[in-house]
Write a structure and sequence with these properties.
7-stranded mixed β-sheet, 4 helices, 184 residues, disordered N terminus, alpha+beta
């Protein structure tokens, strides 16, 4: 009788970047429009701004604060798991058929569980249902944002020039996605 042998490779455990995928363990998240009176939302969005602060100079940070997310033409959704707010995503109108993805954030402790994919699918479906033909985004160009850029590329976003009021900035990467019409 021959025993099969499988080598045991020595592996070192690598700390993952907060945006990196750690497996597909979907949480039972409910996605709904944001309640701006919810104190959890203010804290969650402030944590997002705090995360962005050390990544670039102020003129190169384009995350929206709570007040800006309440502006005309902005639609914000939250993902909740029970009593916990675990994700956000927003769309901001650029023109009648073009919107910008903003405030995409997943609770760092829950990243890699499919929340961002669910939030992105939800907002893109909303955009399609309203006749939006293109969704664009700005994200950082630094190594910190590499996992985010890979995530958006896997979702079909491609590099593009600056759009809306953005200008060329070495700290920014611009991406866009053409939305096919909703299937009947």
């Amino acid at each position: 009788m021959c025993e099969s042998w499988t080598p045991r490779w020595h592996t070192t455990r690598r700390l993952r970047h907060p945006y990196e995928t750690r497996g597909r363990h979907n949480l039972p998240v409910q996605i709904s429009r944001a309640d701006f009176a919810d104190p959890r939302l203010a804290a969650f969005l402030q944590a997002h701004l705090d995360d962005m602060e050390p990544t670039a100079p102020p003129e190169s940070r384009h995350a929206l604060d709570l007040t800006a997310l309440q502006g005309d033409g902005v639609r914000l959704w939250v993902g909740t798991d029970g009593d916990d707010l675990v994700a956000t995503a927003a769309l901001a109108a650029l023109d009648d058929r073009h919107e910008e993805l903003k405030s995409m954030r997943t609770d760092p402790a829950l990243r890699g569980r499919g929340l961002a994919s669910r939030m992105l699918a939800h907002v893109l479906d909303d955009a399609r249902s309203r006749g939006v033909e293109r969704v664009s985004l700005e994200t950082g160009s630094m190594a910190f944002f590499e996992p985010a850029r890979r995530f958006y590329a896997r979702a079909g976003f491609v590099a593009c020039p600056p759009f809306g009021s953005y200008v060329d900035d070495p700290n920014s990467t611009f991406m866009t996605l053409d939305l096919p019409p909703r299937q009947a």
